[in-house]
UniProtKB/TrEMBL annotation:
InterPro entries hit by this protein: HATPase_C_sf, HATPase_dom, His_kinase_dom, HisK_dim/P_dom, HisK_dim/P_sf, Sig_transdc_His_kin-like_C
Enzyme Commission number(s) of this protein: 2.7.13.3
Stretches assigned to the Histidine kinase domain: 345-558
Nucleotidyltransferase in keyword set: no
Location of region: Disordered: 562-601
Transmembrane segments annotated in the record for this chain: 42-60, 66-85, 97-116, 136-160, 172-193
Designated name of the protein: histidine kinase
Species assigned in the record: Hydrogenophaga crocea
Gene Ontology terms, MF aspect: phosphorelay sensor kinase activity
Length: 601
């Protein structure tokens, strides 16, 4: 097969995964093996018929010959041996030993039968078998050479045939015409074989490309965040991807099941949408809500699309479901990008009047003498500095930040900062009974701005307070070493989060509560990334109670004066009332996520 036959697939995406040359060579070899075996079976059948004929002539008292019967037997044996023990191999341009044992043996045996057989039977049609074998499985030159050899043998047989002392013009003409026919058969058979081989290669390549495309489509649909359902005119769900199954039934959707949209009352509006789409033969869309008994209701955007009519089965309806909460989260993310650019511009504008206020307050502080006035100027200065820090934070968030803090940030003792922040937060929110603080980082230090560390912890504590039950020790703050890091854990006994909420926890403006801005966890993540720390969420158990845990891993300072080694003498717990044995249970609790346990003091 010409190698350029596969070049038409060079523009196909599938050609990037498989070499066209290798693919063409493999398909050509498989086609050759199939044809080879077919011809070998045909040779065996012909040899068996010839042997049966010679045996019949010999036993029937006719013109049979022991020599010709022996020749037919040897021919049959050779055909069997070649088929069973000779491994087919593609031909080269030069004839090989394999071709001599097939084409050569057949031509010689048929010529001997034609010349020495005393009966009136003509063996000339049998020469078509080696001609076809050479023309189809070999190059065109081999087919033409076989036809030429057969023609010469027939002419020679006609010239020296027994009973004809001189050449018989009619026999010679008949042999010439038969030879010409063999030449034509060789050319046509070779061209047809090439065409069939090309068509087979094209078909195999198209099938492989279709299978690969179907596999890619399957992966895309299975991983698509949009729910996709295929529904027939009777409302039967023929197929649904994981996103659609989660929207309809959560994890309880049976794999491969065919469900009726009318089977549940909460799906009735979807069934009505599909039926209306079938009725008017048009695509429809709407916003709807699916009521769930075991989880919050889900707001969806539903859209239908009809497929073309497929025979007697008719058309199918493809129903697309999109979670509106995720759509709104993407919109909020886009809004955040716009607000970030606007905030940076506003921050630049605020800096100039803020500097003027600070300078004017400094001049005023030099003039006033009374304590009351001094107190007022100090308040102005403190709030001006606070506004300046806010402006700096907005600008820092707006511009790209390095993964770690710069060298200007000094290491701070983690437990000391945590003790101060949790104490202030507890007094401010009056949750002394609900808060339990267990500090086990010892003298460990971290490179983290104290103000940013305070904001990180306050945001996590505020988030825990919104979801905690308010019972004693319903909120826990734990610090401890973890390899080369110091670990901060904020745990609360709130209920489990929805899967849709879990995926967007750290996105800006995403919140499961309308009263929350959705920026707290986003700011926590931004602050952690700035100092090379990591923040994550997990569902964990503490004191036989399930709860939500947000934990932060901060790289510990490795130095002789500020090593993160644990010192049992420095393990402290704030004197907030809690259940007996909290500290011991905290030390051995799974909140450490498999890390080495600490010895209780």
């Amino acid at each position: 097969m010409p190698s350029d036959d596969s070049s038409q697939f060079a523009t196909s995406w599938y050609s990037a995964f498989e070499s066209p040359v290798n693919r063409s060579r493999e398909q050509r070899h498989q086609a050759f093996v199939r044809l080879w075996r077919a011809f070998m079976r045909a040779r065996m059948v012909v040899a068996l018929v010839i042997l049966g004929l010679q045996v019949f002539l010999l036993l029937g008292g006719g013109n049979g010959s022991i020599g010709l019967t022996t020749l037919a037997s040897l021919h049959l044996l050779a055909c069997v041996l070649v088929m069973l023990f000779w491994r087919p191999a593609e031909h080269g341009r030069a004839p090989s030993l394999q071709w001599l044992f097939t084409i050569g043996v057949d031509v010689a045996v048929f010529a001997a039968l034609q010349y020495f057989d005393a009966s009136t039977i003509s063996f000339t049609p049998l020469f078509a078998l080696p001609v076809l074998l050479g023309a189809i499985l070999g190059p065109l030159l081999m087919g033409l050479g076989t036809a030429a050899a057969v023609t010469l043998l027939m002419l020679a047989e006609a010239w020296i045939a027994p009973g004809h002392g001189a050449a018989d013009a009619t026999r010679l003409l008949q042999a010439g015409l038969t030879g010409t026919g063999f030449f034509v058969v060789a050319v046509l058979a070779h061209q047809l074989a090439l065409r069939l081989a090309r068509e087979e290669a094209v078909s195999a390549s198209n099938q492989a490309a279709a299978r690969a495309q179907a596999a890619v489509n399957e992966v895309i649909i299975e991983t698509l965040g949009v729910g996709v359902l295929v529904i027939d005119p009777h409302g039967v769900v023929r197929n649904a991807n994981p996103a659609a199954r989660a929207m309809l039934m959560g994890e309880g959707f049976p794999a491969g099941a065919k469900l009726l949209l009318s089977a549940r009352p909460s799906w009735a509006h979807l069934a009505a949408l599909v039926q209306e789409s079938f009725a008017i033969d048009a695509a429809l869309e709407t916003e709807t809500t699916i009521d769930h008994a075991d989880r919050p209701n889900q707001r969806l955007h539903a859209r239908t699309q009809l497929t073309p009519v497929m025979g007697e089965r008719g058309a199918l309806c493809v129903l697309f479901l999109e979670d509106l909460r995720e759509v709104e989260a993407r919109v909020r993310t886009e809004k955040l990008a716009s607000m970030g650019r606007m905030s940076a511009a506003v921050a630049h504008e605020i800096r100039n009047p803020l500097s003027a206020i600070t300078q004017a307050n400094a001049l005023l502080d030099e003039e006033v003498k009374t304590p009351e006035h001094k107190r007022l100027t100090r308040m102005i200065d403190q709030n001006a500095q606070r506004l300046s820090r806010i402006v700096d934070d907005i600008l820092n968030v707006a511009r790209p930040q390095p993964n770690r803090a710069d060298g200007q940030t000094s290491p701070v003792p983690l437990d000391s900062v945590m003790r101060q922040v949790t104490g202030e937060w507890s007094r401010q929110n009056q949750v002394a009974q609900a808060l339990g603080v267990h500090l086990h980082a010892g003298q460990g230090q971290v490179v983290f701005d104290p103000e940013h560390l305070r904001r990180l912890l306050v945001n996590l504590l505020d988030n825990a307070l919104r979801h905690a039950s308010g019972k004693p020790a319903s909120i826990r703050v734990i610090t401890q070493p973890s390899g080369g890091h110091l670990r901060i854990s904020v745990w609360s006994d709130g209920g489990p989060l929805e899967a849709t909420v879990h995926k967007h926890l750290f996105e800006p403006f995403f919140s499961s509560e309308s009263r929350s801005s959705g920026l707290g966890l986003y700011i926590c993540r931004e602050l952690c990334e700035r100092y090379g720390a990591e923040i994550a969420y997990q569902r964990s158990r503490l004191d036989q109670r399930e709860g939500n845990e947000f934990f932060v891993l901060i790289p510990a300072v490795r130095s002789g004066s500020a090593a993160p080694a644990r010192d049992a003498g420095h393990q402290q717990s704030l004197p907030y009332p809690a259940e007996p044995g909290d500290l011991e249970r905290t030390i051995v609790d799974p909140l450490r996520s498999g890390r080495p346990p600490l010895a209780a003091s």
